[in-house]
Amino acid sequence: LMGYDWAKDLIHVSFGMVSGTDGAFSTRKGNMVKLRDVLTAACDKTYDIIREKSPDLEDKETIAKQVGIGALIWNSLYNGRIKDVVFDWDAVLNFDGETGPYAQYTHARACSVLRKADYTPADVDYSQLTDAEASAVIAAIGAFPDAVLDAMEKNEPYLVTRAIIAICAAFNKFYYEQRIMADDASVRQARLALTDATRKVIAIGLNLIGIAAPERM
User: Fold this and answer.
1) Could you count the other beta carbons within 10 Å of the beta carbon of residue 37?
2) I want to staple 106 with a disulfide (CB 3.0 to 4.6 A). Which of 35, 144, 168, 192 is the partner?
3) Residue 29 CB coordination number (10 Å)
4) What global pTM score does this model have?
């Protein structure tokens, strides 16, 4: 590349085309969308959703910005980079699908559990985690480091987003199927420790792809 020594270290990372639900964006045809307009719309739309879902939530504007921008980043990185992306607001800002808001909400849920439990790390008897749901969370967390290395080697960020979703799905099932605040103190402490580990790994994963991890949503 123009004779520079560092050119030999460059790698061309190709990516697919981004289109709207009504067709491809094109500068020649004039049907393009400016990034600043998309970012503003994402924050505004997310603010409306949060205001409806959590009217008492403090600092809605900051969280809406974190979730809105995170949703856009996630939408771009959730599939293989050479795949074309169809941009759909309803899908991007869905809190229930395999989306950025879903991952962020799962992180906030884990934070809420720990906050309400007034959790502090202590000696944990991990043998208390005998249920299938806890085992699934542990397996998903255990697979995360390899997913990150694989993503780096292949220049495929979607491997990180998919690993995050696997952790979120496993944790949410654990959350619904098992009583984290169990009566037995050792079981409760083990489940809270697993919740804390989930929180940490989701936050790390989101940070790797440039997405904030709100503690409240």
Assistant:
1) 9
2) 168
3) 9
4) 0.86
Cα–Cα dist 54/56, whole Å: 6
- The answer to whether 72 and 42 are in contact (CB under 8 A) is yes
Q: Which of 106, 116, 36 is nearest to 69 (CA)?
A: 36
Residues 6+ apart with CB under 8 A from 92: 42, 71, 72, 74, 75, 99, 100
Beta bridge partners of 86: 19
With left for phi above 0 and alpha for psi between -120 and 50, is residue 112 left, alpha or beta?
alpha
Task: Say how many C-beta atoms besides its own lie within 10 A of residue 107's C-beta.
Answer: 28
For residues 64 and 50, give the distance between their C-alpha atoms in angstroms, rounded to a whole number.
7
Kindly tell me the number of DSSP H helices and DSSP E strands found in the chain.
7, 3
Residue matched to tokens 């409306």: 48
Question: Which residue, chain included where needed, has tokens 């004779």?
Answer: 3
3 state DSSP class of 68: helix
Give the number of other CB atoms < 10 A from CB of residue 111. Answer: 21
Q: pLDDT tens digits for 31-76?
A: 566 788 888 989 999 999 999 999 999 999 999 999 999 999 998 8
> Are 67 and 39 a contacting pair, CB within 8 Å?
no
Q: How far apart are CA 160 and CA 10, in angstroms?
A: 22
Amino acid at 173: K
Domains of the chain: 5-208 (1.10.730.10)
